[in-house]
């Protein structure tokens, strides 16, 4: 943390500004935390898009391999050749494993800003939990910075995905990255 502290202090004015936009400390904290969460989501999405773009050849290769093996396994199943079906299905499973692993790595890239924001929040809010107006089972009557950030981050990530997928340019960009056809009338 000591190695990271000078960088966190350098970005401190940028990070703390949204917390001071409202006069209410509670609403200012929630707005600031939500704003940091939105910044993490956008930065993570841009990073994941860049990594997807740089690995699009591998993603397309694994997708084609899975599609080809699926077609072959269906053909073997229709012909009643159970041994061929099992062999081809095993190869399809290997291709799926590679594709899944690459997808998991891309997801990890999408959340890389979170540890830095949480480290900054630790510097600022470690000793100042958010007091809740009610007692919540398993949570209590206060939330620490980690819990409040994580809850808001998840909500913001879901809302961001719902909003951004409504834009045809965004859907088209994501589809082109994976080499998929882009439908005009799709929602």
Report on this model:
It is elongated and about 70 Å long. The chain is built from 7 helices and 2 strands; from the N terminus they run αααααββαα. The protein has one domain. Helix 1 crosses helix 5, helix 2 (25-54) packs across helix 4 and helix 3 packs antiparallel against helix 4 (82-110). With 187 residues, it is mainly α.
Helix content: over 70%
Q: How large is the radius of gyration? A: 23 Å
Global geometry: elongated
List low-confidence stretches: none
How many helical elements? 7
Please indicate the percent range of residues in DSSP E strands (runs of 2 or more).
Answer: 5-15%
Q: Could you give the order of the helices and strands?
A: HHHHHEEHH
- Report the structural category: mainly alpha
In order across it, which strands form the biggest sheet?
Answer: 1-2
Topology, please?
Blueprint: H1 5-16, H2 25-54, H3 56-79, H4 82-110, H5 113-125, E1 130-136, E2 140-143, H6 145-164, H7 168-177
Antiparallel strand pairs: 1-2
Helix pairs in contact: 1-5, 2-4, 2-6, 3-4
Concise description?
By secondary structure, this protein is mainly alpha-helical.
Q: Which descriptors would you attach to this protein?
A:
single chain, 187 residues, 7 helices, mainly alpha
């Amino acid at each position: 943390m000591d190695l990271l502290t000078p960088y966190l202090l350098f970005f401190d004015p940028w990070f703390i500004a949204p917390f001071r936009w409202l006069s209410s400390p509670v609403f200012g904290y929630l707005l600031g935390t939500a704003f940091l969460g939105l910044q993490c989501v956008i930065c993570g999405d841009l990073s994941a898009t860049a990594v997807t773009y740089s690995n699009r050849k591998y993603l397309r290769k694994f997708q084609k391999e899975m599609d080809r093996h699926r077609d072959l396994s269906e053909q073997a199943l229709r012909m009643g050749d159970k041994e061929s079906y099992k062999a081809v299905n095993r190869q399809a499973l290997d291709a799926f494993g590679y594709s899944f692993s690459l997808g998991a790595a891309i997801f990890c890239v999408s959340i890389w800003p979170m540890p830095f924001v949480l480290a900054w929040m630790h510097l600022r809010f470690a000793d100042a939990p958010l007091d809740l107006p009610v007692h919540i089972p398993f949570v209590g009557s206060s939330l620490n910075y980690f819990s409040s950030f994580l809850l808001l981050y998840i909500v913001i990530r879901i809302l961001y995905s719902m909003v951004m997928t409504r834009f045809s340019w965004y859907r088209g960009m994501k589809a082109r990255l994976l080499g998929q056809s882009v439908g005009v009338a799709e929602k």
